[in-house]
Amino acid sequence: MITERTGLPLSIGISAANTHDSQGLEPLVRGIPPIRSRRGPRRRRPAKLHGDKGYDYDRLRAWLRSRNITPRIARRVIESSQRLGRHRWTVERTVAWLSGCRRPHRRHERKAEHFLAFAGIAAALICYRRLTT
């Protein structure tokens, strides 16, 4: 899941349990819809992307830079994990909001397409609730 700064889900995806999170980053970034702004043209992609140490790969950093996205990804051996909590809590909170919806939380569906559809509906409900209050 990719969220914006306040925790609204921008892109959501599912994968098999035995795949690494870094393999799902490119489809998620491609799935981000155009961002509506008050003035000027619509932005097609975010300006920067924060990630934890699981996304620390040179190919991902180069791919993000080729799309004009500044990667803010913690280095595996160099940086400590203490600073990750500054931005990671918004994603963790959004995942907790998704777990509050019963159907995606229990995984009733056998087909991945159905599960992804219900997760998208739950994300739309989260956006609706956040934007109406």
Automatic annotation (TrEMBL):
<feature type="compositionally biased region" description="Basic residues">
    <location>
        <begin position="36"/>
        <end position="48"/>
    </location>
</feature>
<protein>
    <submittedName>
        <fullName>IS5 family transposase</fullName>
    </submittedName>
</protein>
<feature type="domain" description="Transposase IS4-like">
    <location>
        <begin position="3"/>
        <end position="126"/>
    </location>
</feature>
<dbReference type="Pfam" id="PF01609">
    <property type="entry name" value="DDE_Tnp_1"/>
</dbReference>
<feature type="region of interest" description="Disordered">
    <location>
        <begin position="24"/>
        <end position="51"/>
    </location>
</feature>
<dbReference type="InterPro" id="IPR002559">
    <property type="entry name" value="Transposase_11"/>
</dbReference>
